[in-house]
Amino acid sequence: MRLTRCSVRDLRIIASAEFEPGRGINLVVGANASGKTSLLEALYLLGRGRALRQRHGDRLVRDGCERLRVTAELSGEQGRRRPIGVERGPDGLQMRLDGRPLRSALELSEALPLQYIHPDIHQLVQAGPGLRRQFLDRGVFHVEHRFLACWRRYQRALRQRNAALKAGGSLDAWDVQLAEEGSRLDAQRSAYLQGLEPLLRNHVVGLLGRDDVGRRGSTPGLHRPRRAPL
After folding, report:
1. How far is the C-alpha of 217 from the C-alpha of 230, rounded, in Å?
2. Residue 17, strand partner residues
């Protein structure tokens, strides 16, 4: 779906802002400290349900105000329009979609997919496999509708297995479920990577003049996600 209209109230240095993005690429320009980053943070909060800069999340609300609010309208196929909004105040974060309250920020992500290119994006290469797996899972989440349910079943079985391990109980049933759900996760991730491979190869050919890009070997432990995909 496409964001067609957005309203921001009392978020960081923005007291009030209204804007309607165009259909193509939109550039946000302005003087220093004019609210460009605050506007991006508003969109991130709207699509993820959390602060862009986690360490300063408690400062999202503008000084002197009790709560912030970000509302928007999404336009989809056949002209379908969906209102979406978040509000943060002393009582926490409230989220709404199509006029109904949400329990999970995952529904925000499904309605408004976002990709934020972080200054620390190099950590995808330099950091451990957990961050890369999380990045991969976010991509699979947006193209494979069965992924989230499978991922949740795997996590639930993993918690149950860990509890049984601590209690000295049998692990057989949980090992079977972990293997089944893990295999499904691996298959969905592999299919997603196969779709990306030709796109990556085209970019590498254009940038480096070589076409030998591809996956090499296996990905041991790929079916063991430790962090939430979102």
Report:
1. 27
2. 8
Q: What are 100-158's pLDDT values in tens digits?
A: 999 889 899 889 988 888 788 888 888 888 888 888 998 898 888 899 899 999 999 99
Domains of the chain: total: 2
The whole-angstrom separation of Cα 155 and Cα 135 is: 17
Residue 116 in any domain: the answer is no
Check whether residue 18 and residue 77 sit in a common domain: yes
- For the chain, the 3-state helix, strand and coil shares in percent, each to the nearest 5, are 45, 20, 35
Buried b (16+ CB within 10 A) or exposed e, 29-63: eeeeeebeebbebbbbbbbbbbbbeeeeeeebbbe
Sheet holding 100-101, edge to edge: 14-19, 2-11, 68-75, 81-89, 92-97, 100-101
Helix (H) or strand (E) holding 100: strand 100-101
